[in-house]
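Shipment paperwork, digital attachment
Item: protein structure file
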Amino acid sequence: MTDRAEGRSLELYFVDGKPDGMLTAKVFNWTGHVLMAPRTQIRTALSREEARYTGVYILLGERDGEPFAYIGEGEDISDRIRNHDTNKDWWTSAVLVTSAADNLNKAHVKYLEARLVEEARGVGRVTLENGTTPTRPGLSEADQANMEAFLDYLLMVVPALRIDMFIRNTRPTQPVGATSVGPVFELVNLKHGLKATAVLQDGEFVVEAGSIARSEWHGKGNWDNHCARLLDQLKKTGVLQLDGQHCVFTQNYAFNSPSAAATVVSGRPAGGPVEWKVKGTRQTYKDWEAAQLAHPEGEPL
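Attachment content:
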C-alpha cells in the first residue's frame, strides 16, 4: 500500500467543438455521466438519450447579481428541466448527472439530491432556490456506500467544469505534534492590528485558524469585487468570526495564492509574495520561493 495520491483521468468532450457550448464529462472506471449545456442549447441537450434517464440536475445562474442555483432529481430529468424552463427565468446553464447504463433508481437520485444540497449549503458559495434540504431516503448500507462513492467522483468532476459551488476550502487543523512541510509564513500589520500565519499544504496556501484579519473591505474599484465577495462569504459561513474590530479565522482556510490570502486578511488589494514573510525573519515569500526554485526538488538547500 502507498499513501501517494492517485491520479484520475477525466475526459471532456465538447459536443460542438466550442469550449462554451455543450459538453460531456466522464471518468475512467466511473459509471456516471455528466452533460452540461448552456440554456441556449437546452433543446438540443434534452433530445439526447441520457437526458431521459433517471438522475440529478443542477440549474446555474444569477439573481440580483449573486450566484444562484437549484438542485433537483427525476426519473426522466428532461421532463423536470422542461418544466423549469417555463417556471424559472434566472438560470443560464444546466448540468445533468446520470449513469451510463441508466441504473440509478428513484431512491438513489433522491439520496444524491439530498447530499448535493447538503454539500452546497455547507460550502455557502451560492444561494440555493431549494426551500429546504431534502431528507435522505433510507438506503441499504451497500447502496449508501455506492452513492457516496458516486458522489465522490461527481464532486471531483464538477470543479473541472468551472463550477465551484461544492469546493470546500476549509482544512482540518494539524494534530498536536504534527509538522508542516516548509516554513510558517506570517503577515503582520501593527497599524491595523493584523497578525496571520499560513503554511503550504499539498500545493495550497493555507491561512491558519486563529489568524486575525480586517472585518470590512477597504478596497476600491471593480477589480476588488471578487475578493470583497469572498471576505463577505467567509463571514457568512463562519470561517471568519467577528471579534471586536477584527475578524478571526475559526478554521484553516486554503487560498489559491499568497496574494488572495493577503488580500482577504488585509481587506484590500495586497501583494502576497512580498507581504508574507517567513516567520521570525525578514525573508519574503517571494525570496523564499526563489531560493526553492534555485535548487532541484530533492536536493538539499
